[in-house]
Design a protein that fits this description.
3 strands; mainly alpha; about 200 residues; three-stranded antiparallel sheet; single chain; globular
């Protein structure tokens, strides 16, 4: 009988004073870019909140985050002036309106464990990248009058309700955006070529 009580006492001590079980980590590393970690939670937050393409999958979001990481590092290296508080506030309001009702936006934030500070920091980074593209790429894009005229003649039906002057102004913007997008892609390709990018494994759609 005495032995039984001693055994029960030892078991009770083990229960009361055992080391806590290690926490289960739900998040996982999806990629490392120049020693900067991109976690699965980062990918999911980016896809559901910050990407304008509503049908984007995790693989597309991860690639977008890799590009953003590289461009952000470049913006900091080149000392691009950061966006103002007013610019961040305006972009935050625009982002919030994409979700319609405030309750919907609140539910998304809760589900993703995403705070307003995190959102504003992400917006700040995206605006900084936009400034980099404007100053280092788009500023040097030039559209010739011949290009504008050729585009106008090939798309006359699209501008039939506009004056020639308004049409050419619109074409200038279209062609500038196309060229800037192409040059940005080439710029990112060069950044990727010299970066250390390690992706854990392909993501399923």
């Amino acid at each position: 009988m005495r032995f039984r009580w001693i055994l029960l006492g030892l078991l009770l001590c083990l229960v009361l004073f055992r080391s806590p079980a290690p926490a289960i980590v739900a998040d996982r590393i999806m990629a490392v870019v120049n020693h900067e970690v991109i976690a699965l939670s980062d990918v999911q937050k980016h896809r559901e909140v910050f990407m304008e393409k509503r049908d984007a999958d995790d693989a597309a979001a991860l690639n977008d985050l890799i590009d953003q990481n590289l461009l952000l590092a470049e913006a900091k290296k080149l000392e691009i002036h950061p966006p103002s508080d007013d610019e961040i506030a305006a972009a935050y309001k625009k982002l919030r309106l994409r979700f319609g009702r405030p309750e919907t936006f609140g539910l998304v934030k809760t589900r993703l464990d995403l705070t307003d500070d995190e959102i504003k920091e992400q917006i700040k980074q995206q605006l900084l990248i936009q400034k980099l593209i404007e100053q280092r790429i788009r500023f040097f894009v030039f559209v010739t009058p011949e290009e504008i005229e050729d585009y106008y003649q090939e798309h006359l039906g699209e501008f039939k309700n506009q004056t020639p002057e308004a049409a050419r102004k619109a074409i200038q913007e279209i062609r500038s955006s196309e060229k800037a997008q192409r040059k940005t892609g080439e710029y990112v390709d060069r950044l990727r070529a010299r970066a250390d990018i390690r992706i854990n494994r392909p993501l399923r759609d």
